[in-house]
Amino acid sequence: MQELLREMVETYGNRIYRLALRYTGNRPQAEDITQETFLKVYQNLDRYDQNRPPGPWIFKIATNLCRNWLRDNREIALNFDEETRSANPGPEELYLAQEEKAELLQAIYRLPEKYREVIMLKHVSELSYNEIAETLNLDLSLVKNRLYRGRLMLRDSLTKGNGGSVKNE
User: Domain 92-169 falls in which CATH fold?
Assistant: First the structure.
């Protein structure tokens, strides 16, 4: 069991951290959620069905912890520094990259939760459609529909520059 847990942490640790960082915008909080995720995984290893892939199960735990954090912390502090650093960007490039990323992330955070979750699981955590469906206990067709609608809402929000409002569908 210890070996299985070690493999899970090595395989999914960074992706869980990135997911938590996008939810919280706070590195220490993302680290806490990542640690808590794997603590819960460890505590529930006896319930894990080893005939199924662990990804959806682990991401479900992490997503629930992130949801709880969002519920308890209504104001989201966004931190864009970590993802925008590159080898040797100039000041203007760094500024523009931060602005674009900030605009995109703010648009994602303005999405209704049901769209925001699938967008983050697909594009931040890089889960497959099937893994997202299993993680959120949704039909595959509903996952695809929410991704499609969420992307449309993001596109509309970003292209129209509508002051940040996203229709709640």
Answer: Arc Repressor Mutant, subunit A (1.10.10)
Alpha-carbon span 57 to 47, nearest angstrom: 11
**Sequence ranges of the domains in the chain:** 1-79, 92-169
Q: Tens-digit pLDDT profile for the chain (169 aa)?
A: 788 889 999 999 999 999 898 888 888 999 999 999 999 999 998 888 888 889 999 999 999 999 888 877 754 444 444 443 445 556 666 666 667 777 888 888 889 999 999 998 888 888 899 999 998 999 999 999 999 999 999 888 888 765 444 555 5
CATH class of the 1-79 domain in this structure:
mainly alpha
CA–CA dist 130, 17 (Å, integer):
21
Provide the residue type at 113 as one letter: E
* Cut 0.85: pTM above it: no
